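In response to the reviewer comment on reproducibility (Comment 2.3), we provide here a single inverse folding case reported in full, input and output, so that an independent group could reproduce the run without further information from us. The structure tokens appear first.
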């Protein structure tokens, strides 16, 4: 039985990974991360060490979507919409785009 102090809720895991809870659920379905246990109510709990390892492996960045995200952003999509398209947080997408392209101000001009 896992130590419950080392278990994270899907929301906590998502916050640590910088993604949405739906992304954590999808990764669990795809086998990228495995729930350590299910509560009596059927809720998943994830091992902190496994979540940290996943984060440290830069799985999100290794998925190779940076180019596609930058392309959508360069076509005029707002950062928030690009983030939603890829199922990641606004902050993470902003960091990714900052490495890939010049960010725009609210008026659409490059900063």
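Designed residues, in position order:
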């Amino acid at each position: 039985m896992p130590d419950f102090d080392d278990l994270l809720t899907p929301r906590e895991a998502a916050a640590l990974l910088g993604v949405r809870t739906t992304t954590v659920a999808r990764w669990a379905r795809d086998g990228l991360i495995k729930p350590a246990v299910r509560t009596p109510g059927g809720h998943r709990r994830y091992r902190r060490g496994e979540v940290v390892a996943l984060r440290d492996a830069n799985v999100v960045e290794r998925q190779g979507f940076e180019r596609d995200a930058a392309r959508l952003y360069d076509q005029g999509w707002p950062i928030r919409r690009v983030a939603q398209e890829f199922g990641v947080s606004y902050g993470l997408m902003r960091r990714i785009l900052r490495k890939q392209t010049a960010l725009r101000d609210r008026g659409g001009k490059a900063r």
